[in-house]
Amino acid sequence: MSLDAAPLSPASSDLLPEAAPAGAASGPLAGFTIGVTAARKVEEQTQLFERRGAAVEWAPALSMDPNRVEESVLRPATERVVAEPPDMFVCTTGIGMRAWLEAAEEWGLREALLDALRPAEILARGPKSVGALRGAGLRELWAPESEMFEDVLEHLRGRDLSGKRIVVQEHGQSLSMVAHALRRQGAEVENISVYRVLSAEDPTPMFRMIDLIAEERLDAVTFTSAPAIAALMEAAASVGRRDDVVSAFQADVLAVAVGPVTAAAFELWGVPSVYPERSRLAAMVKLMETELPSRRAGTAIELATGQQLLLHGEQVLVDGVEVRLSPAPAAVLAALVANPGNVIPRRALLAMLPSGTAGSEHAVEMAVARLRAALGTRAVQTVVKRGYRLAISL
What we know:
- It contains 15 helices and 18 strands.
- It is of the alpha/beta class.
- It has three domains: 3-65 and 199-295, 3-Layer(aba) Sandwich (Rossmann fold), CATH 3.40.50; 68-196, Rossmann fold, CATH 3.40.50; 298-390, Winged helix-like DNA-binding domain superfamily/Winged helix DNA-binding domain (Arc Repressor Mutant, subunit A), CATH 1.10.10.10.
- The protein is globular, with a radius of gyration of 22 Å.
């Protein structure tokens, strides 16, 4: 389970204002149909959407009990950490850290585990990991603002890790490639798999969801974990509809993630997604209150250059003047507008270019160059080694 996939329960400060009663035809999301893939806290999410007028289709992507601790694997791993304390410990999720400590307590190893971790250089992937660590009396030395694991690796890149023993707490998905990267820097790495993420017990609702997405009968689909995205794509592949699902998400079905960790899982498929600044359920619903109606009525964005960009269907207006774009730069603009201010990787943009376009990142660079020629050179920013983003006014 991803960092931003821990059980979502909005704090009182995050609660959204009360909207229309469930089943009402009014509200900011009236007329929209939203797919929900969460297995837990689904009633809360469904009610938030229905109170705002939306119709909801639910299909759990993961098991109702996704965080299943395997004692036969975790206990010997815990005993190894106690016997050989690490020089560095990387905590990736709060829910995983708490589950590990709870299991260790049942085995009488909690205090020994904490004693083994306490002297280590502790890195945390995000605020939930920090909270779990501090709740156990451990203190992180560093955590990225982005909550992205790639930034943890960037923090360590270039350091001489020769002879260092590093323990990495996995978050429901294998981090074997992370281990390989750290070993290349000389480290001895052990990944601790606290729990397994399992697909939903009954796949029937998910197959229905796949058909609805592929046929573009949903306006948006929400995801609260990266493994849920992987499970959806695996299920779609099993019925021969993965390409249809990807195409639908690239066109008119909005993929909505609860946070950046979940959103990153879409990059593999070249699917653009949106997510709120805070990884909270309420923030995600709030984002959709503005995102979905704007997609239907036309998208208006104020660029950092002071220009007003308006998209209405295939029409593009800059300060009220129509700008004509060829298919490739138009596809790039659509992806950037769907994620205003967020970085879109080159490979994701490449996947969205029209068929027949040269299949290399050079094609993306050419499309971006043409888009800049039409909108202004400062309208699209290059983020070195990552991709491009639309320069919006903050």
